[in-house]
Amino acid sequence: MLRRSFSVTARMIVMKAKNTVTVLALLPVNFLAVAYGWWAAGWTSWAANWNEEPYAPPMAELGTACAVVAVIGVALLLARLWGAAAFQMIPVLALITLMSPS
Fold first, then answer.
1. Digitized pLDDT (tens) for each residue of the chain, 102 residues in all
2. Which residues contact 86 (CB under 8 A, 6 or more apart)?
């Protein structure tokens, strides 16, 4: 019985380590996706201000960046890395907030 509980605990530690390594490995990709969306939204806002037009978010660019991050999240779910997949929601939510026309 003690051996079995040790085995389960060891597996949990390994899964936590895999999730942590995966999140750290994906940080540059997430940063680039959110930075690209932020840059596209800022550039569009600047252009709208320059031409004195109402701001309309760049949906194609933000949708593409959001899709890249979402596909990575689905791949993490399929790989059963639940913690890393949950972390992928943060960049998706950041890109969704950039889509609001405010």
1. 555 566 767 777 888 888 889 989 999 998 998 899 889 888 888 888 888 888 888 888 888 888 888 899 899 999 888 888 888 888 888 888 888 876
2. none
CA distances in angstroms from 27 to 12, 63, 71, 83, listed in the order given: 23, 19, 15, 14
User: How far from 23 is each of 35, 42, 81, 100, CA to CA, in Å?
Assistant: 17, 27, 10, 27
Q: What's the alpha-carbon Rg for the chain, to the nearest Å?
A: 19
